[in-house]
Design a protein that fits this description.
Layout: H1 15-23, H2 28-36, H3 49-68, H4 75-92, H5 98-122, H6 126-153, E1 157-159, E2 162-165, H7 175-195, H8 199-217, H9 222-239, H10 241-261, H11 266-275, H12 285-303, H13 314-321, E3 329-334, E4 337-343, H14 350-383, H15 388-404, H16 415-430
Helix pairs in contact: 2-3, 2-6, 3-5, 4-5, 4-14, 5-16, 6-7, 6-8, 7-8, 7-9, 7-15, 9-10, 9-15, 12-13, 12-14, 14-15, 14-16, 15-16
Amino acid sequence: MTTPTAASPPSALPLPALRRAGSLLPVLPLVAVVALLGLPVAPDSSTTPADAASAVVVLWAVAHSVRQARRPLTRTAAVVLGLPVVGFAVAAGGAVTSGAAVAGLARYLQVFVLVPVAVVLLVRDRRDARLVLWSLVGLALWQGAIGVHQYLTGTGASYQGADIRAVGTFGASDVMGMATVVAYGLVVATGLALGARGRRERAVAAGCALVLVVPLAVSFSRGAWIATAVACGAQLLLTGLRPAVKVCAAAVAASVVLVGGFGIGAAALQERLTSITQVAAAPDQSVVDRYSLWAAATDMWREHPVTGVGLKAFPEHRDGHASLALSSGSDTEGAGQGFRRQPLLSPHNMYLLLLSEQGLLGLLTAAGSWLALLVCSLRRLRRARHVRDCALVACGLLLWQLVDFAYADIGGPSTVLTALCFGVGAWWALARDAAPATAAETGAR
């Protein structure tokens, strides 16, 4: 008679899965920040749930580092990520009011120092990074789906008299929010498609990238278009000339089918694309306003070349330096919001914002830190063998942000996502274990 084998206790069955889930615990707060950006945003809200969650992320990173009982950052990482603090602190001393100094310093530290450092501390390897990256793609698909629905049903923000501009859940008061999120997702999906080792994952990522082209197009954001084209083009070139030619041919064919065959936004897109080059002949009012703001920022810098006019002081000095061609604001309505006049409180150029408010000191320390991240990322990409997907994504996100900063600056609910993307770039460029961390995919911790 055979003795029956004792069955394993039910609690023993899920232990491997629980261990794998538990190993992802450090990065779950980062995923939560991304997920919270999918919620609707109140029009006049200065603080969003995602901003509050980013503060939790910073505290979580500190606690995690204390628990690990090791030096959290390398010397290079501490210097590169801490360099902007110098310019921020000096400019805070020149702010118009103490409240503006505190608010401005907190915002700059959040976006360019604290959250990126937290990402470096919490993301330990390729599996952690890929979880965060796929969450970015998921958010882009969600916001993009809402944006395309707004375009097709005429429930988006107002554009040339029609409510067709895709803005997602960010509303008409933040027309750049959805464009930024979708552009991030497209750059991430492109990097994953070009660098992933599995055929299925490459196909899924490539499909996501193609799908995200549509909501990016109907966002009518010229700056996001330019930055995305540059970043994705650079990713393609980094993988080799032959793959770049094939992907470009596929992208052109898809564009012809979508715009030429189905007529998706053909007239409006053609007009918007043409306006990119109309900076001297027949510029629209938005272009005139932008150049007037750029000129005002340059004049402020000339008067205060070293330290600028102070944090959050651009609105106070704008009228004294802007030309009469500058309008009082931009009109926004649609997407569930009534008509309102949106004041122009920044130059819509991050480099000129730094130059005007923080002077050469602020520009050199902040932009120097960003450029160092990009250079370190590209150097590490050359040595990468098994993590090219994360490398391509990190380089693409950094390049996208540096190009987009020529047409936009920080502000709005999507700014916390900018901090997260700088963190991903910093993790790849500066973290100790970014390059050799493929063992985690086999479950080894």
